[in-house]
Structure formats: structure tokens, C-alpha cells
Amino acid sequence: MPLKRVDKTPMPERDAVLRSHDFIEVNEGYNIAHARFEAERCLRCQDPVCIDGCPVKIPIPDFVHLIAAGDLAGAAKILRSANPLPAICGRVCPQESQCEEQCSLGTRFVPVAIGYLERFVADWEMGQAPGEEPEQPTRTEKVAIIGSGPAGLVCAGELARLGHPVTIFEGLHAPGGVLRYGIPEFRLPKEVLDWEIDQLKHLGVEIVCNVIIGKTISLDDLFDEMGYSAVFVGTGAGLPQFMGIPGENLNGVYSANEFLTRVNLMHADDFPNADTPVMVGKRIAVIGAGNTAMDTVRTALRVGAEKGMIVYRRSDKEMTARVEEHHHAVEEGVEFHWLTNPVEVLGDEDGWVTGLKCISMELGEPDESGRARPVPIEGSEFVIPVDNVVLSIGNRPNPLLLQTTKGLKSNKWGCLVVEDESAQTSLRHVFAGGDAVTGAATVILAAGAGKSAAAAIHEDLCG
Amino acid sequence: MAKILEKRSLTPVTKLFRVEAPLVASAAKPGQFVIVRVREGGERIPLTIADYDRDEGALTIVVQEVGTTTRLLGTLEVGDDILDLVGPLGMALEIPAAGHIVGIGGGFGAAALLCLMRELSARGDRTTIILGAREKGLLILLDELTEVCDNLELCTDDGSAGLKGFVTERLAQLIDGDGPGRPDNVVAIGPMPMMRAVTETTRDQGIPTLVSLDPLMIDGTGMCGGCRVTVNNEVKFACVDGPFFDAHQVDFEEAVRRNKMYVKQEQISKDRAECRSLAVGQD
Ligand SMILES: Cc1cc2nc3c(=O)[nH]c(=O)nc-3n(C[C@H](O)[C@H](O)[C@H](O)COP(=O)(O)OP(=O)(O)OC[C@H]3O[C@@H](n4cnc5c(N)ncnc54)[C@H](O)[C@@H]3O)c2cc1C
Ligand SMILES: Cc1cc2nc3c(=O)[nH]c(=O)nc-3n(C[C@H](O)[C@H](O)[C@H](O)COP(=O)(O)OP(=O)(O)OC[C@H]3O[C@@H](n4cnc5c(N)ncnc54)[C@H](O)[C@@H]3O)c2cc1C
Ligand code: SF4
Ligand code: SF4
Ligand code: FES
User: Fold this and answer.
1) Cβ of B265 and A266 within 8 Å?
2) Is residue B225 in contact with ligand 5, taking CB distance under 6 Å?
3) How large is the ipTM?
4) Looking at the structure, do residues B179 and B246 belong to the same domain, yes or no?
């Protein structure tokens, strides 16, 4: 029996002061010694409860054991068979509420660093020659994938492996969805995403950018004019919500989507070498406390803000961001205003943001979500002086495809309705998964949905 | 990528391009636009679909050079590719069959009237176009526009062609019954001050008026909210809900202010682009 050390092997990280001015990845990754050391902590439980916590049921003890044994190729094979995007999920999964939350070591000690190990194996794999041989399509039924986020990418890869000719249609000029325009480089290097996309191309998947299904081509035409036999809808949840408070349209107010897209997709951090600017003053307030809010405030520091603040109407316990993101934000000097609800954005006579008027909150009875309901404290209004405000209070599915496709059903939040088992929508041969179905969720859930939809599509076409 | 099939200089700073974009051409409707990107690291900018030819799979766009991206686009030649082109975006213009429709254009707006007025004329509406410019040489596409409407009316600030004065003066005369007579509907496309003036001219007359708003855009699909405008006290995303809106409900002040958000950066970018092209010119 290996020794069960109490602590997990720390992730080597770049210095907080240095890193908060550039976009180089914060986590440097384990080396082989770290990885084997950490892998040996795993108990190889009879009943590996960690697997229950993983949405795609990675056989965790098996791959962890192979790391300990030094068989990285074997570990990579196991990982990839369950999760087609290990290098990405190893970096961005909220492990603490999934696999690592369940890990039995966690009851007395600290859970195995499953995410770090997953990333380690996947990074090792990236350094190797391309593994999979391209498949010649063995089936004639073509499948169209709408959207190139994790759901679409994974669905495409799985279908190509099953022998189908696959085309991904993406509305933007570059593929990846939120992985491209949302999650910043310092958390998920574009190199990693590009590598995954190259693997798909290697498998024979065709990616066509600058095509919006519902505008450039209708969903019906994919079947009638272009000869596709099935369609997977992975259009995500990219519609930003606003609060509806006065001053939201002042100059200097952004949605998190716009702010992050300007930097990640359009490279505003490199202005004027790149042509798209982003407006950052000295002080920026980001409203919300999810991953998107943390990404936004940390990005703001990197493009020149002197003070980055998170403003959230609930307390730190209700924050939805990954623990690691919050921790990194704290290290980088982000200021947190918990139990603070914005009521108005204030501006000068030229319409530029000067401040954020807020009201203090206290926690009351639990609401429908089970979280304590924040209640305003009467008369507690105060103003935080700021130059920019970014709203990061959630996204909904984009209604564009729904508006232009007859018979495609959605629920009252605009999420596509699918059958639980088959991922089939209200239209025949049209399947869906990822944020378009669940509303804003996680990369691994989107990837898992893409994978099971691929199986359902194959069954539908060939079963 | 979209290959340039034809290029024409309409004025020293206005260029017409016909580009190969079969999918967009076959889906395009009057009033919609495309977003283009000209170079790696370049901005995404919206441009109106001036015309389309489904058989040939070609689109016509008309570009007025005002800053970095439009100037860069202006340097492309026949046979070159536009790096990225996506569309058609926005809602097609819908005007109830109305009798007499007056389209008012300034700047690149003249081009935007091309396929629009042709379609309205074809369905049987009586159509008038009022074009305005500083002087005669800046009035564009006169031959093409003459063909797509019943009456073409010109206005210039210096009187070198048509009426000496603003388009709104001619519009007011029409409303009073002059020439082709009172419009039942008005559509204005052009610089913000012009659209604003048209809006005020028709407001008290109760003539339904549409304007094409041109806020800054990035994705053009409703993903960023950067293009938001206030219409009838509601926030709308111009790229998906517009670009045409009921003029009498538009908060123009806000729209003008938001368009000026990056004036400083645009100047930096422009100066830099000029440096770059000077440097190229020297080798
Ligand atoms: C800033 C940010 C940080 C996040 N951080 C994390 C994290 O740390 N961990 C985590 O697990 N999750 C995180 N998430 C959530 C996660 O990114 C999403 O749940 C996931 O990307 C959803 O994947 P998807 O494939 O369903 O859609 P998306 O990634 O949204 O991709 C959808 C794609 O479809 C395209 N599209 C839409 N409509 C059309 C159309 N009609 N035609 C053609 N193309 C279309 C879009 O342009 C887009 O590229 C984060 C989200 C954001 C915004
Ligand atoms: C729906 C829509 C349709 C459009 N159709 C056309 C068209 O058919 N032909 C055409 O030439 N232009 C059109 N425009 C305007 C065009 O998109 C802008 O001129 C372009 O984005 C400017 O980019 P730039 O990099 O060259 O200049 P920038 O450096 O971005 O700006 C240079 C100068 O132009 C002003 N400016 C920037 N953007 C706009 C804008 N959206 N509207 C007005 N002034 C602006 C700036 O304030 C600045 O003074 C349209 C805009 C929209 C929203
Ligand atoms: S995919 Fe996510 S949940 Fe599953 S094992 Fe990896 S890190 Fe854990
Ligand atoms: S629960 Fe933890 S210790 Fe047990 S097998 Fe899973 S990772 Fe290893
Ligand atoms: S341009 Fe992004 S929402 Fe309209």
C-alpha cells in the first residue's frame, strides 16, 4: 500500500504579481515526478465513488494507476475513450464539485488531484506524434453540426470515428465557441484548443466558419438542398442578460461576452497591432460571481485596469465560480464586494461611466434555488467610483435558430427541448446538446452531451 | 473568403465591390447586411447588402472609407479575397404595401436603397428616392437608382445638382404635395444627423418612418450586446432586431453617443495604419 499523504501535490503556478500583467497560463502543469507522486495517493477504491462525480464517467482509478506505473500512453488511451477533451476539461472542470468532491480520500484528507492528473496526461499526449489514423468515411449518411463549442466538436469527432462524413458550421470566423471567445488564454491556452481542433480535421471533420444556420442556410436546406441526413444543434447559450437598471447603456458598460470577445477573439489586448480596441479605465467593476465574472475581472487587470472589483448580491458561499478561479483572483488583488447589489450606473454629462450605485444586502430565507435569498438593507445605498462596469449575470440560448426554424420546440427559457435518452429535438433527425439545451452549464456537460448525441445519431441513421 | 469580382470607384472615398458569396446571395433580402474582416487581427465591420444576384452568386457592397478597416478594404483589387464575410444578418426590411414610399439616402445609404427600392417598385408601390450630398460629385449610383424607382430627386448643399439644400427640405416639399407628392412611408439610410432630421420632419406629420441604425458591432448574431440601442424605451440588439427601427421611437442621442465610444482609439488606429502604408510606399 502506498503511503497516503494528507496534502495534494501543489500545482506549480506563476507568480501572482508577474502573471496579472500578461496572458501566459497561470498553472504551469505537473512534471512526471509530481504526477506520479500524486497518482500514488489514490487508494484504488473497491467502489471508486469519484467516477460517480464525473459526468462522462472516466474510469479514474484506472488512468491514475497507469500514471503511477509510468504508462502514460495507456493512461491517455483510457482518458480519451471516455472524454474526448481531456486537456481542456483537466483545466476548466469544476472538479471540486464533481469527481474530486466524491473522492473518498476527501472525507479524512484531501482528494486526489484528478483534474491536474488528467491535464498532465493530456498535455503529455499533445507532445506526441498525432495518434489516431484518419478514418476513411465508411458511411454515406452525412451529418451537419451547428456550432463549434465543446458540444459540437465532440459530437463531430465521435461521428467521424463512427465513419460518417461530418461538417461543422460555425457562425464566427474561428471555431471553438466559448473556448475561443470566452475562456481567456491564461486559463486555457488557444494552443490547446487548436490542437484539439487539428485532431478533428485529421479525422476528416470539415469545419466551415462564417456560416450561420438560420441566416446563411436554413436548417431545412441542410436536409433538402445539401443532402445531410441528420443535424446536431450545439449553438450554446450566448445571449447576454442585462439587469435593466438605469445607466446600463452608458459608454463604458459592457456585457462580459462583449468584453471577453474583444480580447479573446479580436485580440484587443494587442491593440493597436490588432484593430479592435477595448475600453478599460483605472477602476472596473464586474457584476456577478461565476467563472465568467472571474475571467472578466482578471482579464481587465491584464489589459490595464489598476483595480478590479467583483460586485455580487449574495455572499461568497453562493458564488458559482470554480474555487481555483476565485483563489487566483484573490491572489491577483481583485477586490470583492459581497452582499452588494447594483441599482444604477452613474455617468458624467458626456455619458461616460463614473460610478456604480449599490445597495447593501443581507441574507434572508432560502429561495427556490435553496440558496439564502439576499434582501436589501433599507437606506444603505452607496457609490463605488468606477470607470467601467461589466455585467456578468448570465447568458441564455441565442434565439436565432429557433426564430427561423419551424417546429423546433423550446421551453420558457429558450432552451431546446430534447428527449432525455436520444437527445432528439421536436424535429426528426435533428438532435441537440450542450448549453443550447441545458442553459449555461459546463464544458464537460456539453462534451458529454455531444458524445451521447453522436451515438444517438448513429443509431438513428444506421440502427 | 469572398473573392472580389468587380471594383469601381464611385467617389474618391467610396468604392463599390461585387464579391463572390453564393450562399449569402441566395439568402439575402433587402435591408440585410454582412460582416467582413479584412486581415488577421482585423476588426469585424458591418456593411449593407446593396444588391445581390442569386444566379451569379454575387453580392454588391459599397464602402465609404472612414477609418482603418474601410480603408484597408478600399485597397483590395479584383481577384483578391475578403478574408471573412458572413451574412445575411439582421431582419429584412418590412414595409406594408403602402402606395407612395420615399427612400432617403446619404453617403453609403444611397447604395443601400438599391435592392430595397427595386423590390418595392416591383411589387407595385410608387417609389421616390431622395439623394443628398455636399456636391454633385459625391452623389453616387445615379444611373442604377434611376432604374429602380419612379422618381429620383437630388439635393446638394452647394446646388451643383438638384435642389440646393438638405434632403429634409425636399422631403418637406413632398409632404406639402409638391412633385411626386406626400409619402405614405419613409425609409432613411445614411449619416445619423440626416436620419435624425428626417425623423423630425415626419414626426408631426404622422408618416411612418424607418431608419437604419449603425451602431458598433462585433459578432452580428446577438452574442455581445455591443450593438444595443434604445427604441420605445426598450433595449434592442440592432444586429438581430434591426437594423431598421421605427424612427419616432429611437433614442438618437444615446445611439450617437455610443458610436463615439472609441473615437480616440479609432484615431490611434488610423494614424498607425497611415504610418504603415507610408512605410510600404517608401520601399
Ligand atoms: C467566460 C466563460 C467562462 C467559463 N468557464 C468555464 C469553466 O471554467 N469550466 C466549465 O466547465 N465551463 C465554463 N464555462 C461554460 C462553458 O464554456 C459552456 O458551458 C460550454 O462552452 C458550452 O458549450 P456548447 O458547445 O454548448 O456551446 P458554446 O461553447 O457556446 O458554442 C456554441 C457555438 O455555436 C455557434 N453558433 C451559435 N448559433 C449558431 C448558428 N445558428 N449557426 C452557426 N453557429 C452558431 C456560436 O458562435 C458558438 O461558437 C464558461 C463560460 C464562459 C462564457
Ligand atoms: C448595419 C450597418 C450597415 C452598414 N453599412 C455600411 C455600408 O454599406 N457601407 C459603409 O461604408 N459603411 C457601412 N456601415 C458603417 C461601417 O460599418 C463603419 O463605417 C465601419 O465599421 C468603420 O470601420 P473603420 O475601421 O473603417 O473605421 P473606424 O476606425 O472604426 O471609425 C472611423 C470613423 O468612423 C466613425 N464610425 C465608426 N463606425 C461607425 C458606424 N457604424 N457608423 C457611423 N460612423 C462610424 C467613427 O466614429 C470614426 O469617426 C454600416 C454599419 C452598420 C451597423
Ligand atoms: S472530466 Fe472533469 S469531472 Fe470528469 S474526471 Fe475529469 S476533471 Fe473530473
Ligand atoms: S475515490 Fe479517490 S482515492 Fe478512490 S479511486 Fe477515486 S480518486 Fe482514487
Ligand atoms: S453585434 Fe454583438 S449582439 Fe449585435
Assistant:
1) no
2) yes
3) 0.93
4) yes
**Predicted pLDDT at A131:** 61
Scanning B128-147 for CB atoms below 8 A from A yields: none
Domain that holds residue B225: 100-259
In a domain, A11, yes or no: no
Local confidence band at A354 (pLDDT 50, 70, 90 cut-offs) = very high
Asked if A251's CB is within 8 angstroms of B230's CB, the reply is no
Cβ pair A273:B41 closer than 8 A: yes
d(CA A286, CA A326): 13
| Residue A343: count of CB within 10 angstroms of its CB | 14
Query: What contacts A46, CB < 8 A, 6 or more positions away?
Result: none
Give the domain extent around A289: 249-391
Q: Are residues A385 and A408 in the same domain?
A: no
How far apart, in Å, are the Cα atoms of A458 and each of A164, A223, A231? 8, 16, 11
Q: How many domains does chain A have?
A: 3
Neighbour count for residue B178 (Cβ, 10 Å): 12
Are residues B138 and B253 both part of a single domain?
yes
Identify the segments of chain B with pLDDT beneath 50: 280-283
> How many structural domains compose chain B?
2
Is A2 inside any structural domain?
no
- Regarding the beta carbon of A111 and ligand 1, being less than 6 Å apart is answered no
Whether residue A324 sits in one domain with residue A372: yes
B218 to chain A, any CB pair closer than 8 A? The answer is yes
Same domain, B82 and B115: no
Mutate to test the pocket of ligand 2, among B59, B70, B86 (most ligand atoms within 8 A of CB): B70
Q: Are residues B109 and B219 in the same domain?
A: yes
d(CA A142, CA B134) in angstroms, rounded, equals 55
Nearest CA to A36 among A116, A106, A92?
A116
The Cα A253–Cα B41 span in angstroms is 24
